[in-house]
Amino acid sequence: MAKILAKKDIGKFIKFLKRKYRVFAPVKKGGGVLFSEIDSVNKIITNLSMIPPIKIFYPAIQELFSFKKNKINQSKKLNKPIALLGLNSFDINALSVFDKIMSRPRDKYYWQNRNNSLIIGFGEKRVNLIGEYDLFFQERVGSFQVVIGSHLGKDISKNNLFINVADELKKSIFSPDPLFLNVKKLSSAIVASYNDEIWDDLAKICFGCGNCVYVCPLCYCFDVKDEINLDKNLSVGNCSRCSGKRSRYWDSCFLAHFFEVSGHNFKPKLRDRIYNWYYHKFVRFPEEFGTVGCVSCERCIKYCPAKINYREVLEKILKKYE
Amino acid sequence: MNNYVPQQFVILRIKDISADTKLFTIKPGLKFDPGQFVLVGNLGFGEAPISITSTPGKNYFDLAIRIVGKVTKKLHELRTNDIIYIRGPYGNGFPIDKFKGKNILIITGGCGLAGLRSIIYYIKENSSNFGNIQIFYGTKTTEDILFKDEIKLWRKFAEVLITIEKPTKSWRGNTGLITNLITTTTINTVNSLALLCGPPIMFAKVSEKLLKLGFAKDNIYASLERNMRCGVGVCQHCTCGEKYVCKDGPVFNLDEIEKMGDF
After folding, report:
1. What is the chain B residue with the closest CA to A249?
2. Global pTM value
3. Per the CB < 8 Å rule, is B237 touching A221?
């Protein structure tokens, strides 16, 4: 026994979701694909989005609080919960890891939107799908076979648009990324490669632009900045009369300022910052979260202006330090 | 609890302790261990990580803040009775339990003394728990010496040696770099621990000399400085290999520091 949703009914389904949710799905935008709030089914395309959907919950700029005359006001919770529609396996897997990151310690801003969210995956097959989701729509001729992943998903699928059929549920396919079959070996190889010329050579072609970080579904480093409203009462030292806000911004560990304090930069060389990115994803990440900081989506390859391919880098290191 | 929202404190006293450093006494008190730090700031002007420089258990606490950038410059504009915004305390602090019964050698340069003043007072207040106490302090000029009046009093429970890199003619004491103070005649390596705080170059040179004279790596402790935005091991700015200076540190022994790999 399984449930299906007819393709012709997906518009009605979105309409149904919109009663309770702000619905985000991948759409064409500015020459690329981005998860955006949608009104109709027509716009949805299922190509890999440039910015991963996780970052709907972890936006480029997140206000932490505003202040006025020494009074702090915390940003209010959004009223309508968010539904993400059309996630692929990479992004569902990444979301589960991101949930772990945002739980140490618990990040109020992430969870205020993530908590009541609805996650609906989409794909021809379920390949390497290990992350948690509410529903997964598996494409077949004229309809989607509906895989239920949670209590919330089960409740949603009680809607009349979902029809019971006698089919067997298609099995998910599991063929793990060969690069990450032995994470311990990969970690030790990266540790051993610290002085290797490979990092110097990469620094010669890498622009240090940080794009790979912004498009990565598992990068989350940030900076914090204050803004003051222009105000004729702006006082000099204390802020007892001024107003403004403090926000968290995406940062990138490839940028020159990242490890800088006043008077000293702890990683002035790009080669050390490149190494740090690999070290974070394949050494520190497994140590902290029990998994590599990569879901093999390859966005960082697609959007690297220097055409750097991390898979080739890792293969080279593994070959040399295995 | 929301980690990113600071608490309001009030400035009780401000004292100039050098041309570019002020000592802020802040109330109410804070529960902390020597070696821990806070993120201190002013709404609209950001935050900076600063070691708590007073001893725990009081109804106030001290922060010594030197002007090194925009945030600290703004903090220096604050006046007595102004509100100051603080998050924390953060970090591990010194592993005091391991220090009991040991000779303590404190080696610091410039404003690094502020990072060790808390443990210095802790040792003073619990001096029966420790062996011989020595404080070696190096600065560029005599004007850079912090806590001059207090250092005189520290001589009652500790041997204090000061060296000046660029002394005036009237300076009668030791001259040159702090490494000059570290010799087989001035220090005792048996049953001793060294606590370091200072610029990275000082840390490198001093630990090299201590190792040469026979200190074990796990008997040399340092309080490290890094860029910090969150204080709780998320933002990635303070990472050193597998460690986060903000939550695993800022105090590490040399053995741990070397294992961080990309230090």
Report:
1. B235
2. 0.93
3. yes
